[in-house]
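Lab meeting, action items carried over

1. Structure of the two-component assembly. Owner: GW. Status: complete.
Input record:
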Amino acid sequence: MRRVALAGLTLTLLAVGAAGTAVVAGSNNRSSIPVTFSDSGPEPQLSRILVEIEKNRLDTALAQTEALLTQYPNFRLAHLIKGDLLLARSTQLSTFGNAANAPQEKLTDLRDEVIARLKAYRNREATAKYIPRYLLQMQPGQKHAIVIDTQKSRLYLYQNDNGRPRFVADYYISQGKLGADKTREGDKKTPIGVYHVTSSLPPQQLGPLYGTGAFPINYPNEWDKRQGRNGYGIWLHGTPSDTFSRPPKASDGCVVLSNVDLDALAKNLQIGLTPVIISNSVEWLSFDDWQNERSALNKKIDEWRSDWESKDVDRYLKNYSKKFQTKDHSLEQFAQQKRHVNAGKEWIKVKLSNVSMFRNPGNEELVVVTFEQDYQSNNLNNQMKKRQYWIREDGNWKIVFEGAA
Amino acid sequence: MRPNSSTPSLARLTAIVIGLVLSLSVSFANAQANPQGNPQALPEIQRLMKQGQMPQALEKVDIYISTKPKDAQGRFLKGLILTEVGRPADAIAVFTKLTEDFPELPEPYNNLAVLYAQQKQYDKARTALEMAIRTHPSYSIAHENLGDVYAKLASQAYDKALQLDSSNAATQTKLSMIKELISTSTKPGAKAGAAATKPEAEMVKTAAAEPPKTKPVATPVAPPAKPVEKAPEPVKTPAVKPVAEKPPVTPTPVAASGEADIVSKALQGWASAWSNKDVKAYLAYYASDFQTPNGMARKSWEAERTQRIDKPGKLQVSVDDIKVSIAGDKATVRFRQHYTSATLKTSASKTVVFVKSGGRWLIQQERVG
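Predicted assembly:
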């Protein structure tokens, strides 16, 4: 009677296996992986538990589930598995989560969570082999960068290793109840784009919903506003104390982490500096492809700089898109002003430093470039932090927006 | 976390009396051990209990226990009476002490579990039932109760997983309290033996306010012939594979009749070492590959035996009706074992398998039946 196969659990496991490529079960292959993964979360244990269930070793699975609950007492998913494993001792199970009279949507939430966690765990090798396309260049002051995949319910933390992103850790996250690609206030969606952490809110200032802390990001950014997107108050934040984690789709648009994960992440965040790039589905590049994209764009930016120094306004304006706009001016107005200013120039020197380049997730080919600009000329010196949005237009990179950052 | 539902006590007591136990082979020899003791005291207490006269039963059992403080049967009845009169905390104390003093008895564990389950302490109930099954793998009531406790624990886990507001208040557990101490014995190997001559189980409804169950509670204890080692082991797979399935087939050769005497002497030496509480000599009769009950570690088994045998009070173990069959270096001995201690007197059929090792016959297996 005790040797009842947990049909539902096994099905889930198979589904995960089928969906992911290169399935890594258990810890067998770990020795061959050169990098350190964030195996501190519950995923390795969850994975082992489901392997035990698949092999019909329900006693071991139950013992491991109980151990997991000792570590994470409010981990609802583990409670569900525990319930199934206990029930399997007295009755035949039909599915994953056999609680009678349970609201279906709650069961669905937990099923979605287990699938999200296991998929991420089993495909974790991608994070070591490939680089998220968005992290084209971190500037030296940026110690870390965050990339979020909303579909996979995953946050990846990268370290700046002389400009090359190195994978540090990844964490399960929850996104908006209605998914990603926020456009309107109250649409319960998580924005897609290149953002950064703007402040840190201690738990004392927050309601219990936000757990151990919150880090607002700069949604809507310049590009969002230009696209007419609105809303506000998008944060990375923690979890209320009565639960270890929340379902994959749970927030009003914020990115939610477990408190323990948020605390670990918080140590690496620099206010005003750490990029937070949110994607629907992260694109990954090989090192060579990433290197090519990065140097091509660096070359274009340097061309723009030297064109500016040339005092040849037409040559300079060739770097700008027809759709170019600043906060206050159209391309025409901008061009007019440049011609006017340049008339009085005998010489111009432009130096750029701390250049960061982050590709904007989505269909458009758009890169957010931020740098410090040291402008000198015969009649004006100026230093500023500038942000440009470069867009690929007819095969060429052009500036579509620029302004003080 | 979830609001405590105000449902009545979930675990219903199903009053099941499993036959009458005090058959010829097992008797609680009060008179022998204690001349002042009234040999009719226990049946009288049971009669009072059946008639629902609990205060009188409690009074009698307290007197009985005062003359025989170690007697398992009397203390067991006291636990039942305390349960019936609604003193679960005291009943828990009595049964807990019984499990400590007689860890080989499954019934106190079972009843402890029922009491814990009534208090919704399902984790404790589970531990107690798992202990009952560990000592007594084929104990069907404990298995049934454990099934119910697992289901309760499962629904608690679901409540936590899904933040349900006790959606399962309707489901009731059907844990059964054991009303008789059947497997009384101080020997782990002798557990199932007591049931061997029991009459067919019968269902009797007693005081608990419950309609009679139609659930057949046919054989709450293992069929006597079944060796303990072969019973399904729910907790963990036994480390040692049972060899017991193949009794030696070769009839004792004529030449071995002298050898049979030697084996028989070894058996008697073993019983007398036990009788004399000579633990060292007793343990020396066991082969290094002796199959311990439930595959427990040799050291723990030895510790348990030492503690059991070394208890103060009189002890008398004798054997008779010895039948030896030898096949090569293996001898299977069937016999009757008579065991008398301060608290207990039993007779049971046993089988011991000896192996010849370094010129000596040593015990490799020991089982009831």
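2. GW to write a short summary for the group page. Key points so far: The longest helix of chain A spans residues 287-309. Residues 3 and 57 of chain A are 8 Å apart (CA to CA).
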